[in-house]
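hey can u run this one w/ magnesium ion bound, need the structure tokens asap thx
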Amino acid sequence: MPTEPLPTLATDLHMVANLASGLGASRAQNGHTASNNHVELLAQALEQSPFGIIVMDIEGRAEYCNQSFTAMTGFTLNDIRDVAAHPWNTAESTDAVYRGLLSSQQADDRWNGDVQSHRKDGTTYWERQVVSTLRDADGKHTHLVVFKQDISERRRRKAAHEQTRRLQEQALVSSSNGIMITRSDADDHSIVYVNPAFERITGYRSDEVIGREGRFLLRDDLAQPELEGIRSALREKREGEATLRNYRKDGTLFWNELRIAPVRELTGSAITHFVSVINDISERVCYQQALEHQANHDSLTGLANRNLLNDRIEQAILWAKRNNRVMGVMLLDLDHFKLINDASGHSAGDALLKEVAQRLARCVRETDTVARLGGDEFVIILTDLPQPDDVDQIAEKILSSLSRPMDVVGRDVFVTASIGVSLYPRDGDHGEILLRYADMAMYRVKEHGRNSVRQFVPEMGSSAVSRLDMEAALRRGLERGEFLLHYQPKVDLSTECIVGAEALVRWQHPQIGLVHPIEFIRLAEETGLIIPLGEWVLGEACRQQVVWQQQGLGPVKLAVNMSARQFRQEELIERISAVFAGSGADPRHMTLELTESMVMHDVDSALASLRALKKLGLSLSLDDFGTGYSSLSYLRRFPIDELKIDRSFINDIHLNADDAAIAGAIVAMARSLGLLVVAEGVEKKEQAELLSSLGCNLVQGYFYARPMTVSAFTTRLQAQHPQAA
Ligand code: C2E
Ligand code: MG
Ligand code: MG
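ok here u go:
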């Protein structure tokens, strides 16, 4: 099998062949006169040549072989002398070549080719042979010289290289990554090759992109931050990677995790091309984005959640610090949301929260953050307040935006909100503290009639205790008897006499001082501590009731608040009867205050409990009444004795005709049902007068008396019972 001689080998072999021919020629010319030295030299050259050499006569019988031939094949001259069959040859073909050369009379007959030969031990190997003839003075062939080089290793390397190349080609074609090869000239990055995966990912056929500039997949989206990395890698002709937004033929976006690498010429080191590996990671990015979104956003409203909020507050504080600006945290809690939720169902509640979220977002700037903490609590971070008072204007804007009716599943619903505000740097420089202070300020709003805004003032912070500390302290407080009751008189408007009192729990914290229920009732509910606490309150009120009775100051009708969790406990009736049995108090002089949402929660079981409580002889009062969906039909069904009109209606009753009308309607409705009506939160004379004219004759409020200690209340009672001891 003839082949193109490899340049170096061919040169060597031909040189030696020529030398050998020269030897023949000089012999012919000079007969035996050639110098011994010269012959010696040539003999050594042949003998020590790194190529295997055999010299044969024209019959093909070996007359000479050198050491290299023996080393290569294992045959010595003895093995092959006089053997015409050439045992090293595997094929007839080389013998034919030899015969052809010998019979030819061409002057420089020569043949070369790669053949597979045998060693003496039967194994095979590849060799390159260069065969030439020796002639005598007449030009007649006398001998054949065969030069051999073992090329097995070279062939093996070449085959391996070939296979790698084929694999690479295969890999390019079948790769699931898109591959694009571009030129690497400064002014020419045109595409020379794309693989099928590229076509699949981008939607472009190979012939549509060959010749175009590689960056065409970016379209006009050139302001991507990671792009600079790729540009400089191209400029500096080195590897680079980036995640980029690319665009398919149909215009849709895909995320390309791109790697580029320079391609060097086979020989030399010049960089001629770039290979770009395109990995479409859109799915992964979408999934990550969804996960991130989920982790940082509230699924109902799409607003930031607590996670993201914490992050944003800290960022906003940092920014304000750096730029010497004021930053505001606004905590907003809807008033009576639970009533709407309980009365109209959760889907209505959800719709309302979504609408609120949208309105809030419209009231603030893009750079501000609106977050939902859960339930009906929202937080707004106002990143840059030119004036601290601007926060009040924004709050007013929010309150007015919320005051427009909301279309919730086809019905107009009205909501109000209580807003508390804290400011950086005035109130603190930690997100957690600012949130807690805004929360305290918000509770003050709730306390003072809701639907308004308040800024934090340091006095509110005196009872600032973290939730965890608070929970442990609550437990300890219960064990150590740190709770006490204050009593707020219920006054008969017509006589201005105290006819009863509401027992309101207080916590005498050893360090903080007197803590109001607003600060701990919610936590007590959440932790279940409300059950032992509520039981203690009832027991203590019963005990006090007996004391006043024994002092000749009674009977005073005492009202005790009951929480939802307490009301829903399994053995409610048994436990309450046990408290009464233990204290010796008369249930007929006790009232339990429940809220609308508690009895609306599960009407049937609530009804059963209410009936059982009534059977014990207790009176039942509906607290915070007047918002939400208090309806006549259900009031009729419930065995209650009294309604307490919520403070938020009494607040503006003397200023706002609507509020007065609502209060009037509640009073009329209650009376038609034979219920007592108590107006809560009466702070002004005008309010009292108006209530009186509406037919409401029981009131409770600061105008008459604030909640007071046992001894203060005893004094008031004594004033009313001068005959008592
Ligand atoms: P509530 O049952 O509506 O109690 C009336 C609250 O209104 C009391 O607040 C009282 O101090 C306040 N208040 C009375 N008159 C006025 C007024 O003229 N103006 C204003 N702005 N406020 C007035 P307090 O004592 O802070 O109690 C707050 C709430 O904590 C109570 O609201 C009640 O829901 C709850 N709570 C109090 N004690 C207990 C208890 O022993 N058990 C349970 N479960 N909850 C309790
Ligand atoms: Mg109450
Ligand atoms: Mg109330």
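Residues 608 and 656 are 39 Å apart (CA to CA). anyway lmk if its weird
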